[in-house]
Structure formats: C-alpha cells, structure tokens
Amino acid sequence: MSDIKLGIAPIGWTNDDMPTLGGETTYQQILSEVALSGFQGTEIGNKYPKDPAILKPQLEIRGIRIAAAWHGLHLTTEPYEKVEAEFIAFRDYMAALGADCINVAEQGHTIQGRRDVGIFDGKPTYTDEEWERLTAGLDRIGERAAEKGLIIAYHHHMGTGVQTTAEIDRLMAATDPSKVKLLLDVGHLLFSGEDPAAIVNKYADRIGHVHLKDVRPAIVEKAKQEKLSFLDSILAGVFTIPGDGETDYGPLLRPVLDAGYHGWFMIEAEQDPAIADPFVQAVNARRYLKDTFGF
C-alpha cells in the first residue's frame, strides 16, 4: 500500500464547469490547503498558472506535485489531426510539470455542461462509426502520451457516451490495454446506477487513476425525478467526500490494491464551496483514507 499516492483535486475549491463557484479563491490558497490537509498532490484546476515555470515553484515550496489533469477529447466530432495536436500541446504541459497521468474523456455530444438538459434524459449514445473513431483514436493518443512518459486513463463520465457499464466494457474491449487505462470514478458509477464493485473486479489490473467521491442517494433520486442537469445536480449536493456517504471503500478497492496498483487515490468531490468548506472537506477526507487504508 505504500506505493499508493494520495491527492485531492481543486474542484472542491473552484469548479471548472462553473467558475463562479469559488471564484474568489486563489490558486495559492488551494495549493496551501491541499498540502496542509496532508495530501501529496493535486490535479490541474482552472486557476492554476499555465506556465510550468510559475506553477512548479509554488508546488515545490509546499511539498506537493501535480498528479494528473482532465483533458477533453472530440474524437467523435472533429478530425483526428486536430484532436491530436491539442492533446500534444497539453501533454507537453503536463510532462513539464512532472505529472503521471492525463485523464481523457470524449466530449463529443456531451451534455455535462448543459443546464437545459436533464442528466438522465439527455445522455448521448455513439454510432458504430463514432465508436470506431473513438477507440482507434484513443490508442493513438495513448501512444502520444507514452512518448513523454505519461499514461492516459479514460474517465467514464455522466452525460457522455461512455457512462454505463456496457459502454465502459465496449471501450475497454476495443482499446489496447497497454495504451489506454481506465480511470475509476466511484461517484460517477454510483450516480449512473452502475455497480462499482463489478467494474473494480473486472478491470482491477487496468486501472490507471482513481477518483474517490461518494453520492447522496436522495439527490440522485431528485435528479431523476426533477430532471436535473449535471451541474444542477452538483449544486443540489449529489457528490460528497468518502466517509460522508454510504460506500465502504476498504473492501471496494481491495482488488485494486491486490492487483499491485501504484498510482493515485484522488479525492474529487465537487460541491458548492460556500456550503461544503473545501479545507474541512479535505481534512475529513484525508482522515477517512488514513482510517480506512492505514496510510
């Protein structure tokens, strides 16, 4: 277990999809509170400087580093050459920061940022031709990442064409395990109605990055009944930190540990920071990980 690195994403402090949430918070405060709460690293947020020469010293003085970052792809809707060029530019930025992983998610037809569409009613699906473009493109993107010593981990996500168990299975079956890993996000699986344990057991040896958050079942039901969008579900409090929900992460993640996973456990529970104090959430999440895993 000592090979596991613990991090917390900045999305609890300020939200990339809704920048007004935590809009007054500086990146220096985020980094300081990440370090103070006992984490080893973080992910990239919208407040962070785009110049590694500025960001790296701010990380180093606090004794933390960048683990990974989200990067949206449009393989189903845009020419591959354009997608690859954008990815390479981001890959080089991440490599300059010494990151380990890039969290990729297909954004073609996504509704995750649309507040006028219910997260369950408006979910897109891909055609066979789009699936081919996506999976073939991911293998090539994985090769580009490896050129700089990085891996890509695919982030199944609410409101996209890779959300359900069947869609995750299709993507995993059609991509090269040496080039495309899986980002396990327990919160998104629970929100979608999937069985996280089944996904963990099936893909334990292919998981490249782990996002840890839980859901509030009453808010999931509210999102279904009231046809809430993804963003409005977040504002309603659908996500919360491990330890504040019903999921017992010890047995759930045991197959990942047994498979020799040596990446990151990253807390990533986006909430309204005016309601869920990000620093308090970070401290509580870190305590839960210590109590659950012993590290």
TrEMBL record:
Gene3D superfamilies: Divalent-metal-dependent TIM barrel enzymes (3.20.20.150). The keyword Transmembrane does not apply. Keywords: Lyase. InterPro entries: IolE/MocC, IolE/XylAMocC-like, Xyl_isomerase-like_sf, Xyl_isomerase-like_TIM-brl. Transmembrane segments: none annotated. Signal peptide: none annotated. Residues 33-278 form the Xylose isomerase-like TIM barrel domain. GO terms for molecular function: myo-inosose-2 dehydratase activity. SUPFAM superfamilies: Xylose isomerase-like. Its EC number is 4.2.1.44. This is Inosose dehydratase.
